[in-house]
Amino acid sequence: MDEELYQAFITESEESITRLNNSLLELESNPEDTDAIDEIFRQAHTLKGNFGAMGFDNAATVAHAVEDLLDEIRHDRLDVTAERMDLVFDGMDEILEILHEIDEHGESRTDPTELVEEIRAAAEGDDGSEAPAGNSDAAAADGSAAADSSSPAAETDVAALTRDVLDGGTVAGADHLYHVAVELDTGEMKGVDAGLFLGNVPEEFDVVGADPHVDSIERGEFEDGFSLFVANVPGEELDATLSGLWKVESVECTDVSGAFDGAADAGGAKPEADADSETDADAGSDSPATDDTESVVADPSAEVDPEEAEAAVEALAAFSGGESDDAEEAPEADADAPESDAVEADAGGDAPAAESSADGGDDASDSTASEAEEKKAKKGKKEKGRSISAVKSVRVDVDQLDQLHELVEQLVTSRIKLRQAMEGEGTGGETGLDTLDELDKISTNLQNTVMDMRLIPLKKVFDKFPRMVRDIAREQDKRVRFKVEGEDIELDRTILDEISDPLMHVLRNAVDHGIEMPDEREAAGKSRTGTIELSARRQHDTVIVTVEDDGGGIDADAVRDKAVSKGLATREEITELPDEEVYDYVFHPGFSTNDEITDVSGRGVGMDVVKTTVESLDGSADVTSTEGEGSKFTIRLPVSVAIIKVLFVSVGDREFGVPIKYIDEISRRQRVETINAAEVVVHEDRIFPLIRLRNALDVDIDESDSGMVVRIRPEDRQVALHCDRVTRQEEVVVTPLQGPLSGTRGLSGTAVIGDGNVIPILDVSTLELPERGRRAMREWTPPSTGEEGATDVEEAAD
Q1: Of these four, 208, 370, 680, 712, which has the most CB atoms within 10 Å of its CB?
Q2: Based on the domain organization, do 19 and 72 belong to the same domain?
Q3: Does residue 491 share a domain with residue 414?
Q4: What pTM value is reported for the model?
Q5: How many domains does the chain contain in total?
Q6: SS3 label, residue 634
């Protein structure tokens, strides 16, 4: 199998599942959105076809069942309920698990039969209908009987067949109605061949019915041919188009536009009196075929020959261009979905009521608890092993490729000129230094172009979260409105991969312990629906990601008590700390203020992963909170970690690098003042406690009496660094610390400079701040204009 096609299948399928999840959330929050259900149905249809064409029948079977349930909702035969949406989402999860197995092992052995039966039972009404969910053999027998009784061989009168298959009301306004008899030259994989044919029927062809049913055709349950009923397409166009499709031996079109003239009560036309009854046992088998027949599903019971499967895949690539185009257009269709606040998970008393059976309801309730426990166990098992997959492909703008090609051409030309200059053959007075300057410009442009190509929108990660938030809220009977902003902000691919799991921990934490139960919120005068907002914005070379909720906030005193009980601080020490510093304890490994451990998260359970991962990326994480009003987690990340510009500073004869993006100002030591015995720099009514690098890095060198002060931007950390000298600025490639050096306080990595020396790169967020400096920040009060003696300020000795 073509490896490129295989990888494209994996990537596009994962993207389709993500889009489907978010579109389904839109439908759940707004069941009347007919455009949403049409888009969802098309996406599910394409997903089913792709898996079927690749020969992965277990996933195709699940997608087929989901499609059937969605089709019932689409035609208003079933309502959107939280329970039915749970089943649809379970189907999406099953397909994703199968996809991960395929990606890892090249195949999948998952048997989705039980889930498929649940979904199909829901599609039939799930309310005590005559065909129970578990009786798959009986259902299959009924389907076969229906197919046999209305097959082309048993029905010679085309008009009577039309009346038997179709409802005259559905085609009353059609200008044309044609019966199309199709014969295919099928191999052993009849379902795949039929699916490939149906998948290439143009979307504008209004297929209003089929005999046997479309589902049976896709399973290969037909003899040499089958019938389609197409409305509003001229016969000559039908014949010309369908004759050229996959495996077609013959197409015969018969005009049946007058089949229902004067025959409203003849030929087995279906009455609509029972349309609202969802307990009709035949609702699933006798429903009209959908008007969307692009599916591609192989018979799940058939053995798949690898060579035929590969041939089917090649055929799909050759014949299903329209379907591929649809897959590309899909992101634009729902690109704005996360921007709205429509992703709302309703549960408990506020969830849409599930439809219940008028009789047999008590029997159903007897097994509800055990079934719920079983489903929860299965879901928990999947959830624990699930992680957001790494970005494996990027889309590159053609202009960037052209620019890259042009720069490479310039690079080759400059290399030749440099060689000539070194050999003394340069012309026009050109020297090696001139060529080096030229090379410097080219390499800079080349670097910028490549770095831009590595940037990927946060949407790639953010799109995974609405579904996760919805599921946790459902499990906990909470109501949550999830908002997303800034998803178009771009980050380097490496950072994007690393930040996915930390963000997942923060969001799970916000739903589990941030948002209160609906009754509790109402008693506190809040809306019963809580709000969680995930946002991102760009600030210079930094991306700031925040997760903010309007929940109960963090109890600072509870954090203090837990910190003391765990031996992290003494009662005296932690009592002196302001709440802002106390909240940082939630990032300590295993720290939680909850006595009861939940399956989802806890304040601090997983939060140490957030802190550790973000700091390893040369970023920072902090939290602010107001009890009773909510919490806000802020994560600052560099746009790229591969190449950064640093300021070189020295302490004695030791040199260190400080990332330029963190620096706000460089000044001489004369600006240092003493406030309450602490060395600080005062700037705009703020104090910046001084960190002497000699002490913080334990450098055994005497500092000179004079020196320089590097003030850090307050949004990154409100401190100033003291060094002996500031030397130069330079771009360097940073290598993170590995092995036993990993996690060293004050250092984020190393860089090799031009002379071969290794320079440590400082991590300004973890440099140790003297206790006097921390105390000075807590006690600082900006001096009021015209008042004397407000604060004891003395100029430090030079």
Answers
A1: 680
A2: yes
A3: no
A4: 0.57
A5: 5
A6: strand
